[in-house]
């Protein structure tokens, strides 16, 4: 049992203003495994004040990028050394299979941190341009106090997409973990202290959505960075619009994997284990619409059904597990409800279904629907669980049209023996990323969404620009 009765504010452990607590429940055992304070508006006030003070008067924004990068480098070194601890903890709090956790919940966030620490040396922080009346210095300054609000599915990764560029830019941060997965923030706070992140530069207040909304509109905040559902992103975007406050929004997805006529069946189906089912399907970029050519539809359906039926579903801490439990009973209900909707819509279950693989824990059998048309709700709405839809197409143009016929535009992939042709097809897909014969998020390339999948980009130099204001200083010859 991991019990925390403090909040990380101003570089130390502060007593919360209220008495409410958040119980963290293991999705595998359904038992309470941790407890943290349930942050209140008064706690947010204090955290914003600490971040404000550190930004307005503290050393952090005044240090050189290289000096800040050195601190990030130290944090990255601690992270690299202790990442197994992080992977185990996140698996315990939200049910990610340990093999995925080691990579996606721990190694990847550390790589993002290291990437931004390294980028500081190459990034153009200032340049000189010839102006009409004389030279102009164009400088990049930190945007200020950042509110970072992130979800439970990949908590350290979605946090690090914000934290690492914000910190290297010279911003200070108030981070709000989700109530489902707040424990990993405590580990990171300890590491930040060890690495010498100055007081007030990083603050954590776990809390629910109302207190999150309070943070978004707080007068002491200069920028909001959010990962989560499209519904929440819309309301945060509205609030930021009223305030003219910059916001980066990484939202939901319903990405398509296009299997072309010439795709190798074995590698394609194996690739879906990661591209479509990573993290129990609780991944915004999961490719849950699989588009198969009519000529190969039955063959692909058989292979996909077989692969998904053979997945090992169980204790997420077990290294043999491929699919763990969903984060909460609420999520189990939601995913099972979509399986019922798919049945009612006339789609055919070819793997999984409503029989639960285990009595205890919030498990749902990984499920594949065949005979799906793109207008069904199971093809249009984000399910956020291990449920795939297999949609037939007639021609390649038809496949591109179906892939783009979505409110979302986050990820995607093309599977083909002809990689150059795959790249041409990927160019036609209206999403922020589209892989060929794989799907991966690289720290040095931008990630984000078109349409209802969000605004702005994280990762890469683009992700750093989101935490900078550009200032021009012209002067006479
Ligand atoms: P959610 O939107 O309910 O919550 C996400 C976070 O925002 C939580 O910390 C929550 O407390 C907070 N929150 C919710 N409403 C808020 C509001 N109005 N104001 C301020 N804070 C608010 O999402 P969830 O169910 O926790 O997470 C799953 C969703 O996240 C999925 O839709 C998924 O697609 C999305 N997601 C997107 C990405 C991406 O990069 N595009 C990555 C991971 C998850």
TrEMBL record:
Organism of derivation: Actinomadura logoneensis
Keyword Oxidoreductase applies: yes
Swiss-Prot/TrEMBL catalytic activity: an aldehyde + NAD(+) + H2O = a carboxylate + NADH + 2 H(+)
Keyword field contains Oxidoreductase: yes
Pfam family, one: Aldedh
Domain Aldehyde dehydrogenase, chain residue ranges per copy: 13-473
Protein name stated in the entry: aldehyde dehydrogenase (NAD(+))
Family per similarity comment: Belongs to the aldehyde dehydrogenase family.
PANTHER family: ALDEHYDE DEHYDROGENASE, ALDEHYDE DEHYDROGENASE-RELATED
Keywords carried by this UniProt record: Oxidoreductase
Residues annotated as the enzyme's active site: 250
EC number: 1.2.1.3
């Amino acid at each position: 049992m991991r019990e925390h009765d403090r909040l990380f504010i101003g570089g130390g452990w502060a007593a919360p203003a209220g008495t409410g607590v958040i119980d963290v429940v293991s999705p595998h055992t359904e038992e309470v495994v941790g407890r943290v304070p349930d942050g209140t508006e008064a706690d947010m006030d204090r955290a914003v004040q600490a971040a404000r003070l550190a930004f307005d008067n503290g050393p952090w924004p005044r240090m050189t990028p290289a000096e800040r990068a050195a601190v990030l480098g130290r944090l990255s070194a601690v992270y690299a050394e202790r990442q197994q601890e992080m992977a185990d903890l996140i698996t315990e709090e939200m049910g990610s299979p340990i093999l995925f956790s080691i990579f996606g919940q721990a190694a990847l966030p550390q790589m993002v941190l290291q990437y931004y620490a390294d980028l500081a040396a190459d990034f153009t922080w200032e340049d000189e341009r010839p102006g009409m009346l004389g030279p102009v210095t164009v400088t990049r300054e930190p945007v200020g106090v950042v509110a970072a609000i992130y979800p439970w599915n990949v908590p350290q990764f979605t946090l690090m997409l914000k934290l690492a560029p914000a910190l290297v830019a010279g911003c200070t941060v108030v981070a709000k973990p989700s109530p489902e997965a707040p424990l990993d923030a405590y580990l990171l706070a300890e590491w930040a202290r060890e690495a010498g992140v100055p007081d007030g530069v990083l603050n954590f207040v776990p809390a629910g959505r109302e207190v999150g909304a309070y943070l978004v509109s707080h007068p002491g905040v200069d920028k909001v960075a959010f990962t989560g559902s499209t519904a929440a992103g819309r309301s945060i975007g509205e609030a930021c619009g009223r305030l003219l406050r910059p916001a980066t929004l990484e939202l939901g997805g319903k990405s398509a994997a296009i299997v072309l006529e010439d795709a190798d069946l074995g590698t394609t189906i194996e690739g879906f284990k990661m591209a479509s089912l990573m993290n129990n399907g609780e991944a915004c970029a999961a490719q849950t619409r699989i588009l198969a050519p009519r000529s190969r539809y039955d063959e692909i359906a058989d292979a996909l059904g077989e692969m998904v039926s053979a997945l090992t579903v169980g204790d997420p801490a077990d290294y043999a597990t491929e699919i763990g439990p969903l984060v909460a009973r609420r999520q189990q209900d939601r995913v099972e409800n979509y399986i019922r909707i798919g049945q009612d819509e006339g789609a055919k279950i070819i793997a999984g279904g409503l029989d639960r693989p285990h009595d205890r824990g919030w498990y749902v059998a990984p499920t594949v629907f065949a005979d799906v048309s793109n207008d069904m709700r199971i093809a249009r709405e984000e399910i956020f669980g291990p449920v795939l839809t297999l949609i037939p197409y007639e021609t390649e143009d038809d496949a591109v049209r179906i892939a783009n016929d979505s409110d979302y535009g986050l990820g995607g992939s093309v599977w083909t023996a002809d990689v150059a042709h795959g790249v041409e097809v990927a160019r036609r897909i209206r999403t922020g990323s589209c892989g060929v014969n794989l799907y991966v998020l690289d720290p040095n390339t931008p990630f984000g969404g078109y349409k209802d999948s969000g605004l702005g980009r994280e990762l890469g130099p683009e992700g750093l620009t989101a935490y900078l204001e550009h200032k021009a200083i012209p002067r006479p010859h």
